[in-house]
Structure formats: C-alpha cells, structure tokens
C-alpha cells in the first residue's frame, strides 16, 4: 500500500542568501514571466546577491521563501514522480501550500504575500521570541498579566510543540514577558529575526486591506488536502479558506495540533523549503519519517522509504 505523503512548508526565518541551488534554478525559466509580472523588484537578484538586509525585509522575505519552497516542491514531485496527500505550511508557508495545491497561481501567490508583507511592515513595530522548555499555561498567564499591566499586546503566537512556544506583540509587551520569564528561571528565550508582531492583534489594522487583496484574486478548490494554521482543519469551501487566511494574521499558528493531525497517517513528511526548522519541530511532535528537502542527502534518503 502506498505511503501517505505530507508536504510541510516553512515560514519566515528560513531564508538565506543563495538558497536556490542549481537544480532549482533550472526550473526558473518555466516561471520567469510569472515571477517578473508579480513583483516590482528583481527577486532573484536579491536571493542570490542580497544585501541580506533586503532579503530579511518582510515584504521581500515572504515572496522569496514562497518561490524557493514552490520550486523545491516541483523539483521533488517531478524527480520522484509523487503527489502529496496533504499539504500545510507554518505561517507564511500556508501560502506556499496554496500555490503547491493549485489553489492560487504562482504569480498571484507571489503578489499576495508581497502585499501582505508590505501591510505588516506598516503596522506598529513588534517582536517575537521563541520560549523553550516552558509550560504553555505559564506563558499564557504571564502574557495576560503583562497585557493588563501595560495595556499592550503580547500573546502566544506559534504553538510549535510542548517544548516550544513563540510569543508575539509590541516591543514593550514582549520585552516585559521575557524579563519576567527569565526572572522566574525560564532562561531559554530566543529573539527571532523579525520586526513585526505576526499572529497577534497588532496586525488588526491590516485586516480590511488584506481582505481586499485576497478578494481581487481567483481562488479554486485545492487539489490536495490543506490543513490550516488557525484551527488545524480543512476548509470546506473557498470562502471559508479565505477567512482562515485572514484570521491567520491575528490568531496563533496551531502547529503542534497540525503535526498531531499528520501523525495519525503514519506516513512520510517532507519539509519543502530552504531550511530544516520544521523537520526539528516535526520530530519534537513525535513524527519520525520526516525528510528535509534542503538536505544534501534528501533524494537518497527519501528513496529508501518510498
């Protein structure tokens, strides 16, 4: 019986200069017009040559990761002659999953996440920290306490595993939570390389404008099952899917529960993008057969189990 195959797509933070290898660049000519028509800048030049400060700007990072992840996906499917049963993505990666599932075109996907990034950049500045080895209830209660104390926003934003939660919010709110965590002995607090407070109500001011951008595009029912961040469920129609994308801006990423959904298939999980971050999170959530497409031995490793 064929193995169940899930593709998982990474979000911001996975980018790095030169993340497109020669195999992926061979696919670029097929999509050259779509890429050029979707953006007002030379995305390929920034990925190859930087500067890194440009690549790390949210409005550029998002299309850069989407494009790279999509090319990984096409290369894997063609090389191995496989199709996924399930796709999902972490935060921004959900848009890579939509493009992979032919729910929206590559051109529209690149344009949409670029505009999403621009809207996010215009919000009040914020920050995000990964909190390790700390109970989610401790983090949630402390965030609520700081919100009330400072009249600000700080919330659990990425529920990645039992041992990793990312908090997000205003700079002052996040800084206060981190200070109190460390004072209480929870020392493993890692600042993420972002300047926006994703998956928090800091993003509220983007909702109406982003809804307008979503509604300009043509969405179709996805070819593959897509598990959404906000509720680890599958949308039952296109309008429901759009609402999940909108809510994702201000609601937490339910990644641990998404991994639990995938785990029940006892299949193969492929991290499809320029990093191995999600592979580590999959293993932390009890998934063993996970393979990172960016690994040098990926094709040799995956062929042994297919």
Give a summary of the structure in a few sentences.
With 306 residues, the protein is an alpha/beta fold.
Primary descriptors:
14% strand; five-stranded parallel β-sheet; 306 residues; four-stranded antiparallel β-sheet; single chain; alpha/beta
Structure report:
- It is a single chain.
- By secondary structure, the chain is of the alpha/beta class.
- The protein is 47% helix and 14% strand.
- It has 14 helices and 9 strands.
- The chain has helices at 22-25, 28-38, 43-49, 52-55, 58-80, 93-100, 106-122, 136-150, 171-183, 207-215, 238-248, 255-263, 277-284, 298-303; strands at residues 5-9, 86-89, 126-132, 154-161, 164-170, 189-191, 225-226, 268-271, 290-292.
- The strands form 2 sheets. The protein has a 5-stranded parallel β-sheet with strand order 7-2-1-8-9, sandwiched between helices.
- Helix 7 packs antiparallel against helix 10.
- The radius of gyration is 19 Å and the shape is globular.
- It starts with a strand and ends with a helix.
